[in-house]
Design brief:
Blueprint (H helix, E strand, L loop, with lengths): L9 E10 L10 H11 L3 E6 L2 E2 L16 E2 L3 H8 L3 E3 L9 H14 L3 E3 L1 E2 L2 H5 L2 E4 L4 E8 L20 E2 L4 E7 L1 H13 L2 H10 L10 E4 L2 E5 L4 E6 L1 H17 L2 E7 L3 E2 L1 E5 L1 H12 L4 E5 L7 E4 L2 E4 L4 E4 L9 H6 L9 H11 L10 E10 L2 E11 L13 E2 L2 H14 L7 E4 L2 E4 L3
Parallel strand pairs: 1-2, 1-21, 2-5, 3-4, 5-6, 9-15, 11-13, 15-18, 18-20
Antiparallel strand pairs: 1-22, 7-10, 8-9, 11-14, 12-13, 16-17, 19-20, 22-23, 23-24, 23-26, 25-26
C-alpha cells in the first residue's frame, strides 16, 4: 500500500440548508464552537449553499425560491471558517438573480477555491460532478434540484445558440388517481365549465395532445382512473438518466461519490419525501453512489440505509437567517403587503412570520449534523448530533446553530427515529447522540 487513500477510509460531516446572511466567526458560545469543532474534524464537511453570492449581483428574477437571497460574497468565507469544504449550489434560490446571479456565485466560489456542484453556465456543466482532493480520498459530488421556479433550470448549448446558466434539474411528473366514478364526475365538471371545449380546440389546432384512455388533464394537473386512488410522482426519465450517467462516471473517477438533492416536495405530509425522491435516491445508490444527502423542506425527514449506504432525506436547516436580509426587490414587499417605498425589510419579515406558520414551529429550528465514517469503502458508523437554531431567541440571534442538549436533544433524536421507521432504520440513542444500527 503506497497511498493513504488506498485505505478507503473517510469521515464525513453532513448538514442541511445554509441560508446565511450574517457573519459566524465573532461568536464564542461553547455550544457553537463545539459544533464548529465537530465539523472541522471531518475530512469532508458538506452543506447546501442556499444563497446567491454577490449581494444583488444582477436583476432580480421574476420568480424566486421564496425570498430573493443575494448576500455579500464574504459569507462564503464564514462557511469555510466553520469547516465546510464541499457545497451543493443546486437549489431553488440559486437563480434568484437570474443568469448573472448564477455566474456571480460560480465566480466567488472559484476565487476561494471552494468545491461545489449543481450550477453551471450550461446544462452539461451544471450536471457534471465536482471533485474535492483530500489526504484521505478523492471525493465526487453530483448535485441536483427538483424544486425549480420557472426559468431557474440550466439550458443546453448548441452550435448556433448559447446555453443558459442555471441549476441542474431533476424534474418530475405528478398523477392524481381517482376512482372510476369520481373520474367520470371530473369529466362532467370539465364539460359544464367548458374547460373540455377549450382543451378540445387546443388539441384541434395542435397546441396540445390528446389524453390517453383513463387519463385526463385539468387545470394543468394529470388525473387518472384507477382502483388505487392517491398521489403518484415519478422522476422524468431523461433528467434522471442524465444525472445517473454522471454518478456512474464520478464513481469511476473518485474514491467516493455522493449525491445531493434539493427537494421540497412532500408525500402529502411535509416530513415524508415524495415518491420520486425515494426512487431517484435509491437509483443513485444502485449506480454506485456512497450516500445521498437530501435537503430543501427546512424540516427533518427520515434516514434510510439502502444496500448498506445512507440516504438522508432531509436534515432541515443548518443556518436559517433569511429574516435578516437587508436588500429586497419591490416584488418581495408586494408579496407581504408592505408598501415598497415607505416600508422596510423588518416590516416584511414581521408579516411573513405571521403568514407562514411553519416559521413558528419548533421543527423549523431543530436539526442534526450526521457524521458518517467509512472504512475500506463501506459505511462503518453513522452518528447523529442534534442542533437547534434558537426557536425562542430574538431575530438578531435566531437562525445560527448550536449543539442541542438535554430534553431538546432527546426530542430531536426521537423525531428522527420516528421519521425513519418507515424505512426500517434502527438507532441506539444514548448520551444525547443517536447511532444508526448497521447490519
Amino acid at each position: 500500500m503506497f497511498y493513504q487513500a488506498d485505505n478507503l477510509s473517510l469521515d464525513v460531516a453532513v448538514t442541511g440548508d445554509s441560508l446565511i446572511t450574517r457573519r459566524l466567526a465573532p461568536y464564542t458560545e461553547p455550544d457553537f464552537l463545539g459544533l464548529r469543532d465537530l465539523i472541522k474534524k471531518a475530512d469532508i464537511a458538506f452543506t447546501n449553499l442556499e444563497v446567491v453570492l454577490g449581494e444583488v449581483p444582477d436583476y432580480p428574477a421574476e420568480h424566486c425560491g421564496g425570498n430573493w437571497l443575494g448576500v455579500p460574497a464574504y459569507l462564503a468565507d464564514e462557511l469555510a471558517w466553520m469547516g465546510f469544504n464541499l457545497f451543493s449550489t443546486a437549489n431553488n434560490h440559486a437563480a434568484d438573480f437570474g443568469a448573472g446571479g448564477v455566474l456571480a456565485t460560480m465566480k466567488e466560489m472559484a476565487l476561494r477555491q471552494l468545491v461545489h456542484a449543481g450550477i453551471g453556465e450550461t446544462l452539461s456543466e451544471a450536471r457534471r460532478p465536482a471533485y474535492l482532493e483530500t489526504p484521505a480520498a478523492r471525493v465526487a459530488l453530483v448535485a441536483a434540484c427538483s424544486t425549480l421556479p420557472p426559468g431557474h433550470a440550466a439550458g443546453e448549448q448548441r452550435q448556433d445558440v448559447q446555453g443558459r446558466p442555471g441549476v441542474n434539474p431533476l424534474r418530475f411528473d405528478v398523477s392524481f388517481g381517482l376512482s372510476p366514478a369520481t373520474f367520470a364526475l371530473l369529466d362532467r365538471i370539465a364539460e359544464e365549465s367548458q374547460i373540455k371545449a377549450m382543451r378540445a380546440d387546443r388539441i384541434k389546432h395542435g397546441y396540445d395532445k390528446q389524453d390517453s384512455e383513463n387519463e385526463y388533464r385539468l387545470l394543468e394537473h394529470r388525473f387518472v382512473a384507477t382502483d388505487e386512488p392517491g398521489i403518484s410522482t415519478k422522476p422524468r426519465q431523461k433528467d434522471m438518466q442524465d444525472i445517473l450517467r454522471w454518478v456512474k462516471d464520478a464513481k469511476r473517477q473518485a474514491d467516493f461519490c455522493f449525491v445531493s438533492l434539493h427537494a421540497h416536495e412532500p408525500n402529502i405530509e411535509i416530513t415524508r419525501p415524495a415518491q420520486f425522491i425515494e426512487t431517484f435516491s435509491r437509483a443513485c445508490i444502485d449506480c454506485g453512489a456512497d450516500g445521498v444527502f437530501g435537503h430543501g423542506p427546512h424540516v427533518l425527514r427520515g434516514i434510510e440505509i439502502y444496500k448498506a449506504k445512507p440516504i438522508i432525506y432531509s436534515l432541515g436547516n443548518f443556518i436559517m437567517q433569511s429574516s435578516t436580509m437587508q436588500r429586497l426587490p419591490v416584488a418581495m414587499y408586494e408579496r407581504y403587503d408592505v408598501d415598497p417605498f415607505s416600508g422596510t425589510p423588518a416590516d416584511i419579515f414581521d408579516n411573513r412570520l405571521q403568514k407562514e406558520l411553519i416559521r413558528q414551529n419548533r421543527i423549523y429550528y431543530e436539526s442534526c449534523v450526521v457524521r458518517l465514517r467509512y472504512k475500506q469503502g463501506e459505511l462503518h458508523t453513522a452518528v447523529l448530533h442534534p442542533i437547534h437554531l434558537g426557536l425562542t431567541s430574538a431575530r438578531p440571534s435566531q437562525g445560527r446553530p448550536l449543539l442541542a442538549r438535554g430534553e431538546m436533544a432527546d426530542r430531536i433524536l426521537s423525531d428522527v427515529v420516528s421519521l425513519s421507521e418507515i424505512y426500517g432504520t434502527k438507532f441506539e440513542v444514548e448520551s444525547g447522540l443517536a447511532r444508526v444500527v448497521l447490519d
